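Revision sheet: structure tokens.
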Amino acid sequence: MSDYIRNFCIIAHIDHGKSTLADRLLHLTGTIPDRDTTEQILDTMELEREKGVTIKASAVRMSYTSRDGQPHELNLIDTPGHVDFGYEVSRALMACEGAILVVDASQGIEAQTLANLYLALDANLEVIPVINKIDLPSAQPDIVAEDIHALLGTPADQIIRISARDGINIEAVLEAIVHQIPPPKGDPDAPLQALIFDSHYDSYKGVVAYIRVVQGRIEPTDSLRLMGGVGEANSGIDLKPVEIGIFAPDLRPTTSLQAGEVGYVATGLKTVRECRVGDTITHTINPAPSPLPGYRQPLPMVFAGIYPVEGEDYPDLKDALEKLQLNDASLIYDPETSQALNFGFRCGFLGMFHMEIIQERLEREYDLDILMTAPSVEYEVLLHNGDLVRVHSPADLPDEMLIAEVREPWMKIEIFTPTEFYGTVMDLVTKRRGTFLSQDYPTPNRVQLNFEIPLSEMIIDFFDQLKSRTRGYASLDYQFNEYRRDDLVKLEILVNEEPIDALAIIVHRDNAYHQGQRLVSKLKDLIPRQLFVVPIQAAAGGRIISRATAKAIRKDVLAKCYGGDISRKKKLLEKQKRGKKRMKMVGSVEIPQEAFLAILRLGED
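Predicted:
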């Protein structure tokens, strides 16, 4: 049976046409009737369709009869292309034997094309290169075919050329899947081992685990066990499945799943922590001797505080983050408190786009009003007593007298760009404390530049600046390199002589004065004027380095004086001054959401 199963995924750079190709495959195999069609069938989130990107990997089963008359079962997993969601891609690859590498005929090979290709080769998958969008006027399929030949060694004339939008040559892709991708290995009679590669929460069925059956078989009446890691909370939990089934692409119950197949198990579990992505499902009776290797945990790179606007929404925010974590295993969060914003959570994200997506999902899917603080990175702080402390939030940085050194995360980045933008990319990276490593010319008119750069310089608007300087042609891939010591200080903002912890940032000492000055000037315009003078100060290294004063709203006390002696006017002004001074001692300043976003917009000036 498993000789006629093919498990494959589609990988590509963002916006090269993965989801459109998946749509065409679903139509051609008759999985989705043409009358039920929508754009991006597998992208079920409103946010995915609106932004035109895949955020979640999604699975579907198709039936296809090849030209030699043999019916095959094809399990497709559509994957995201954005660099922040590389973790989703790596999980999908573990459930497959082959991958279709889609390359845009007009854009050519880009950073994520290479990054995802290397992930597929590391997982020992059979890679089928496909050139898409050959119908575009700007398409250059022959040049792109030569580039792919240089990269993979596939003869240029054997690379499939398609247009997913117009449905040109799609059947050739299906034939290549059937003939080039190997069938899955596995014994249906061996003890059950099924890998959970994704999950979502259903209010009726509980946690629905997406599984790839590696060994054995599952039936709806079986008693199952989650193997978990040694000492983990979910180690050895037993359950009776509510139902098992396949993706068609909606959830369709079935009588059994066996070695090589991809499907789902509705576990009935109600809490997120019990059913972890990367866990192994086995039988309670006759269990497998050991769990499958699973996945390496993703490293969060960007941290930000999420706070409810209304304090009573805190429990709802906690529930929402728990449910989001089930759908998105790379999100991490811990409770924290702030003097300015009360109770909230410190969340870790894979990147800025990931952070933006989580924020929008919280606001849309869970109808929450939230405040996001400025993003920061995780620092390592070595104290004089030899302790090593990890700091996620600038407000948690220990006193300067206790610190021996501060280390910040550095990234290795690869920038793909047409050669004409070489100079402007160099300028952008070197201004952000980046160092040049090497360069490579994968094609005659494109250059790959390799740099090292502090992550803190990347997380605000580096990608936006890169795109605008290169007219959208450059692409970026990055991975964590190491922690390096540097001369870093905490830049604190004091409003009305009160430190605002949510506005604190960690900056390089050389940049502290300029950053402080720009931030103070920006806040002066954003904080509403009060009935008393509000000093806004920036402090770094134990001293005030910049100050701006928000003037008080003043009643015109001289309006009734039509002349007369100057001493009368002075007396009235002095009286007003004393009142303002008294008011300042008891007054408090409300800080609007725009003030917290001011840090994000510093790079635009």
